[in-house]
């Protein structure tokens, strides 16, 4: 079948299997060159193997929950959306969540996803107590920080290249309500934005939408959103009566691929100006529901069609804290000069990262979507160079086009990752189109 990631680029012919039990999983993995696929929400080709994509959708059972400490044991194909639906009504929420709830637990571990709370609470791997990993012989190894710790460390953020995660035990966190106390802070330029982020280190959640087509004086202007889980006392009388009851809005579905000409720089500029103005009007504090705060895009099903038939790519890098301001300035200047805007431009502040191969590091991460074209591909190559020249690195879960040398040069850990894969003979067992392209 024709298969791609969420960005619908690149699209490849791939053989896809969806085993229903462990026995069937063993036989597919044994064939070699396998890669696990969760819900295909990574943007590029990390969950595609042309000869052996193993879809984990039938490994979707929740197995045990301990309400004394929030420990959930579940199969790797369980969707985060189902975890929230099941446990939020009794006061439990994921400790870390990406910007969509339509991801699987296996995909979250493999990409070691980060949320809006990385600066304070780290990435998803921190809340994984243990995982069970199937290797190419079909054996299942339980790994944790104390048991097979080395394998655990490489698997968290290892993009499916150490084996197939079959089960995980994750810790959820307790919340008093399904509501978030959100503060919107408009900023005027990059320096101002970074001051706001630095002053907000104690806020649980922080994220900014960034106007990437700002002119020189307004370059880096943002709407910074801060958030806290609302306590019962902070809710209205009506909300207090049922603090976990949130009326679910009906999602809309993108009915067709937008024609590519609709996404020109004038459309992006007009959208950005209107969005910023709206933020100015709505600045300050208000109580919003969890779905709107964490997953604004999930309400538009199939929103990836907005970029047209050729699909889109995401550029996401992280820059070390001491080089962030200079690096971000150069990245934004390059985008603005080229004039290829991005509707979805997001800036976040990361904290320290401890696992072996995860993406985050102490600094700032910038994520931008671009429709696929020769011009945008050339722009992204220039952005790669700028980010790398400031000591930055790139997020594999978003990548569908980076050159192997760029990854090798920008991420000193990739040599150790390749050596580990070679030594453990994992390169015959597990390969994605991405790992082949990047020589991982
Ligand atoms: C709208 C949107 C917003 C996003 N926001 C964020 C964000 O804020 N932060 C962030 O970190 N990410 C974000 N992402 C990216 C997303 O969280 C990751 O790509 C995640 O890995 C996708 O999970 P999935 O289950 O769809 O996995 P897939 O896309 O199917 O696979 C992703 C990787 O995980 C591996 N994998 C999947 N299942 C298993 C398994 N059982 N065993 C071993 N390996 C496995 C695959 O081989 C592949 O390498 C976003 C994506 C979208 C579409």
Compact description:
This protein has 440 residues and is of the alpha+beta class. The chain contains 15 helices and 21 strands. The strands form five sheets. The chain has an eight-stranded antiparallel β-sheet with strand order 16-12-14-13-19-20-18-21. Strands 6, 7, 8, 9, 10 and 11 form a six-stranded antiparallel β-sheet that branches.
Write structural notes for this entry.
It contains 15 helices and 21 strands. The chain is an alpha+beta fold and 440 residues long. An eight-stranded antiparallel sheet has the order 16-12-14-13-19-20-18-21. Strands 6, 7, 8, 9, 10 and 11 form a six-stranded antiparallel sheet that branches. It has a three-stranded parallel sheet with strand order 3-5-4, covered by helices on one side. The longest helix is centred in the middle third of the chain and has 17 residues. It is globular, with a radius of gyration of 21 Å. The mean pLDDT is 94.
Topology:
Layout: E1 2-3, E2 12-13, E3 16-17, H1 22-30, E4 35-37, E5 53-55, E6 62-66, E7 71-75, H2 80-87, E8 92-94, H3 105-110, H4 118-121, E9 128-134, E10 140-144, H5 149-155, E11 164-174, E12 179-186, H6 190-199, E13 205-210, E14 222-229, H7 237-241, E15 252-253, H8 265-281, E16 284-289, H9 290-294, E17 300-301, E18 312-320, H10 324-338, E19 345-350, E20 363-371, H11 374-389, E21 393-394, H12 404-410, H13 413-423, H14 426-429, H15 433-438
Parallel strand pairs: 3-5, 4-5, 15-17
Antiparallel strand pairs: 1-2, 6-7, 7-11, 8-11, 9-10, 9-11, 12-14, 12-16, 13-14, 13-19, 18-20, 18-21, 19-20
Helix pairs in contact: 10-11
The chain binds flavin-adenine dinucleotide.
The site of flavin-adenine dinucleotide has 33 residues, from β4, α3 and β11.
């Amino acid at each position: 079948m024709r298969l791609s990631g969420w960005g619908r680029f690149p699209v490849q012919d791939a053989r896809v299997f969806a085993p229903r039990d462990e026995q069937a999983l063993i036989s597919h993995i044994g064939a070699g060159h396998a890669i696990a696929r969760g819900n295909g929400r990574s943007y590029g080709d990390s969950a595609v193997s042309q000869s052996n994509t193993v879809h984990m959708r039938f490994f979707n059972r929740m197995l045990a929950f301990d309400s004394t400490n929030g420990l959930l044991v579940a199969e790797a194909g369980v969707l985060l959306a189902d975890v929230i639906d099941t446990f939020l009504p009794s006061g439990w929420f994921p400790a870390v969540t990406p910007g969509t709830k339509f991801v699987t637990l296996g995909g979250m571990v493999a990409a070691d996803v980060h949320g809006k709370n990385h600066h304070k609470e780290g990435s998803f791997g921190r809340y994984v107590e243990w995982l069970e990993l199937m290797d190419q012989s079909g054996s299942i190894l339980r790994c944790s920080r104390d048991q097979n710790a080395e394998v655990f460390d490489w698997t968290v953020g290892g993009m499916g290249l150490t084996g197939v995660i079959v089960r995980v035990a994750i810790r959820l966190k307790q919340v008093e309500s399904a509501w978030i106390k959100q503060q919107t802070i408009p900023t005027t330029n990059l320096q101002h934005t970074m001051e706001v982020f630095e002053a907000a280190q104690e806020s649980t959640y922080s994220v900014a939408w960034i106007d990437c087509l700002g002119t020189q004086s307004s370059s880096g202007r943002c709407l910074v959103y801060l958030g806290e889980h609302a306590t019962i006392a902070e809710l209205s009388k009506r909300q207090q009566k049922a603090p976990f009851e949130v009326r679910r809005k009906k999602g809309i579905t993108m009915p067709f691929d937008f024609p590519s000409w609709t996404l020109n720089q004038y459309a992006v500029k007009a959208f950005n100006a209107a969005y910023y103005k709206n933020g100015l009007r709505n600045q300050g504090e208000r109580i919003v529901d969890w779905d709107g705060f964490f997953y604004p895009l999930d309400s538009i099903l199939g929103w990836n069609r907005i970029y047209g038939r050729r699909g889109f790519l995401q550029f996401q890098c992280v820059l070390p804290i001491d080089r962030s301001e200079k690096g971000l300035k150069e990245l934004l200047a390059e985008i603005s000069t080229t004039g290829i805007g991005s509707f979805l431009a997001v800036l976040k502040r990361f904290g320290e990262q401890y696992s072996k191969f995860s993406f985050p590091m102490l600094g700032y991460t910038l994520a931008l979507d671009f429709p696929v074209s020769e011009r945008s591909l050339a722009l992204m190559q220039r952005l790669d160079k700028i980010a790398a020249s400031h000591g930055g690195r790139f997020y594999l879960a978003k990548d569908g086009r980076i050159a192997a040398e760029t990854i090798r040069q920008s991420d000193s850990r990739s040599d150790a990752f390749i050596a580990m894969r070679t030594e453990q003979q994992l390169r015959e067992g597990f390969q994605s189109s991405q790992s082949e392209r990047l020589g991982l």
